Amino acid sequence: MIRILRELDSFTSFLTDLNHDPDYSDPHLLTEEQLQCNLRNAVEKQNNLVLGVFDGNRITGLFVFLVLPQERYLEMIVGLSRSSAAYREILDFLRVCYPGFQADFVFNPHNELLKRLLAERNAAFDPVQRRMTLTDYRQEQDSEGIVPLSEQYFTEYSDIHNKDVYWTAEKVFQAPDRFRAFLAVEDGQVVGYVDVTHKFEENEVYDLLVREASRWRGWGRKLMEKALAENRPHGMLLFVDADNDPAIRLYQSLGFAFVPRGDNQTAFWQIPS
């Protein structure tokens, strides 16, 4: 049985137990800031749907979804359960209540229960990503050719921007309270960009891209160094594909290190209409 939850204090022991399980912990709940933002404050947020799955009076799963009806989009912010039945019930609930929505799931890659059930529903999967956090800020900085995003360069930025993401170029540009974007400009043309949040104690690099013809010329490093300099004194985190050795070496050289139990994987499910 699924219930909409209005408070979470009653389920503290369940949440703590699940989030300490290496196979079923949630990658959105690693830090105190994430626990506060994604879980403790979840019932107060307008676009959040907080659901509990129960077997009688015993809770077997707790889920937080961001739901954007106008965009026909939802995202699992928190998913905590060891029960295949609980995951199946939640997915069936979404299928009935949100037909035609795009549903994104970011989850612990060791969670084989959820992965298998999403695969049965023909979800597409991104590669496993590793979480890295800034542990050693290094003073070296070369920002020549790096400029903030502005209307002057928006069209070029949009043209090269990754299209297969929720935070598109248009959404980033329209959310200055949340994002900063920096551009690499060579001979008057935008050849790369980095999108990074700026409102948190630990901000996140959402997207870093240098167009193929301009790679291996130091633009990725320059973009990251500019983002790091503008972010001080806050922390910074990012996610990198586990098999992307060149990117991992770059981030390590800038002072980033892997976070234990910080890996995640994303699945994309187009809910049938």
Provide keyphrases for this structure.
14 strands; 8 helices; alpha+beta; 7-stranded mixed sheet; Aminopeptidase; 27% helix
Q: Would you kindly provide a written description of the structure presented here, covering whatever features stand out?
A:
The model has no long low-confidence stretch (mean pLDDT 94). By secondary structure, this protein is an alpha+beta fold. The chain has two domains: 134 residues, Gcn5-related N-acetyltransferase (GNAT) (Aminopeptidase); 94 residues, Gcn5-related N-acetyltransferase (GNAT) (Aminopeptidase, 3-Layer(aba) Sandwich), CATH 3.40.630. The chain is built from eight helices and 14 strands. The longest helix is centred in the N-terminal third of the chain and has 14 residues.
Question: Could you give the topology of this structure?
Answer:
Elements: E1 2-4, H1 12-19, H2 32-40, E2 48-55, E3 58-68, E4 73-81, H3 84-97, E5 102-107, H4 112-120, E6 124-125, E7 129-134, E8 146-148, H5 154-160, H6 169-173, E9 179-186, E10 189-197, E11 202-210, H7 219-231, E12 235-241, H8 245-253, E13 256-258, E14 265-270
Parallel strand pairs: 4-5, 11-12
Antiparallel strand pairs: 1-2, 2-3, 3-4, 5-14, 6-14, 7-12, 7-13, 8-9, 9-10, 10-11
Helix pairs in contact: 3-4
Short structural summary:
With 273 residues, the chain is of the alpha+beta class.
Poorly predicted ranges (pLDDT <50, ≥5 residues)? Answer: none
CATH third-tier fold name of the largest domain: Aminopeptidase
Mean pLDDT over the full residue set: 94
How many separate domains make up the residues? 2
User: What is the radius of gyration computed over CA atoms, rounded to a whole number of angstroms?
Assistant: 20 Å
Class of the largest domain, according to the CATH hierarchy?
Alpha Beta
Pairing-aware structural class of the strands and helices?
A: alpha+beta
Instruction: State the distance separating the first and last CA atoms.
Output: 23 Å
Name the CATH architecture of the largest domain. 3-Layer(aba) Sandwich
Helix content: 25-40%
Strand order of the biggest β-sheet:
1-2-3-4-5-14-6
Assigned CATH superfamily of the largest domain:
Gcn5-related N-acetyltransferase (GNAT)
Annotation, overall tally of beta strands? 14
Please summarize the sheet with the most strands. Answer: 7 strands, mixed
